[in-house]
Amino acid sequence: MNAAKVLDDLKRRFPNEPEYHQAVEEVLSTIEEEYNKHPEFDKVNLIERLCIPDRVYQFRVTWMDDKGNIQTNMGYRVQHNNAIGPYKGGIRFHASVNLSILKFLAFEQTFKNSLTTLPMGGGKGGSDFSPRGKSNMEVMRFVQSFMLELWRHIGPETDVPAGDIGVGGREVGFMFGMYKKLAHEFTGTFTGKGREFGGSLIRPEATGYGNIYFLMEMLKTKGTDLKGKSCLISGSGNVAQYTAEKVLELGGKVLTMSDSDGYIFDPDGIDREKLDYIMELKNLYRGRIREYADKYGCKYVEGARPWGEKADIALPSATQNELNGDDAKKLVANGVIAVSEGANMPSTPEAIKVFQDAKILYAPGKAANAGGVSVSGLEMTQNSIKLSWSAEEVDEKLKSIMKNIHEACVQYGTEADGYVNYVKGANVAGFMKVAKAMMAQGIV
Ligand code: GLU
Questions:
Q1: Which of 82, 93, 109 to mutate to test the pocket of ligand 1 (most atoms within 8 A of CB)?
Q2: What pLDDT shows up at residue 291?
Q3: pLDDT in tens, 153-183
Q4: pTM to 2 decimals?
Q5: For residue 287, which of 278, 274, 300, 296 has the smallest C-alpha distance?
Q6: Which of 123, 247, 361, 387 stands the most exposed, by the fewest C-beta atoms within 10 Å?
């Protein structure tokens, strides 16, 4: 394979999809060497078959708002690759959603899911519908209409969606309810379900906890841990909240959290009580992070992200491309020792280069945030055997999965000078498993 040529072809065939190109470029540049050691891959054009999704569903969703107006949104499901298991990946509801973003997410998901060691292929879906400012009934009407199209393309052995940005327990519950009615069956077609109807314990916590378990493994390679370390967290949704919870539990200090309007900086640290306030604010009242600054009298910076603040560790947990090259330079100048991504592709390629040139610990989302989908995989297992495991059991399994992913990154990503390139490690390890499965299954 000539990575530059493959990418140029994809750009020509699928123009105006910058996020998809960005995700593919990062993977191709790191797997090229390994790929070319296997001439049998190129003989069957494995690389294009791996980069282009198996199929994409795209549909209009029509629903009625509370004032009686008829609204339209776009709905999508990208089924990227099912070589190692049913398509698996979240649904995102956000105004920014488009095909480029979902194709990048589905592509990333394929490698991430491969890394988890569980039998899951990769997919992603969503809509440009934004739940922000919508009533419960509006969200329900939208979701039911969305599901009228999606239900026929998914199933427990076909494609298993879950949550992502804008899709939490409430939205998964509504999707599951409508799916159940249309399919006339009660199956584990979604993960991230409520406890009462097949959801797994620790699923809400899993992405954030998993990121910190991964971070701890990275810190261990430097003979250190989280005690007394200050952390910058971006975001204030599910991932950010449980990242903060685990940082506190392990003796770290959380200085910042953010939302799309701005960030708060609390020099005393966001402690357990303050975190409870944020959880209530965000999950119950669906308020804005600035209200934290009003309540606790700390700094709030409108329209900015927290990367200019000084801290030991950065944990981007909001969204793609939220940390650019300049931000990365500021973090490194301020002495950051580790960056571990809770979000999907939050660092731009320029930022990644800055971290790697500075030889700090840097973990890409597809390794560090794989805990969420891992517990989704465990939820699928529990649904299949019609049993539910205790929180301790699931948490132990999550810990050991994150440890395994870290080991795989070290195995495939250690460079000549001993520096672990976690991007390369995650991409090569994730790729090899999918590639071998595709080879064994013939040209399909
Ligand atoms: N949306 C999450 C992710 O990016 C979780 C997906 C899932 O649980 O299927 O991995």
A1: 109
A2: 98
A3: 999 999 999 999 999 999 999 999 999 999 9
A4: 0.98
A5: 278
A6: 387
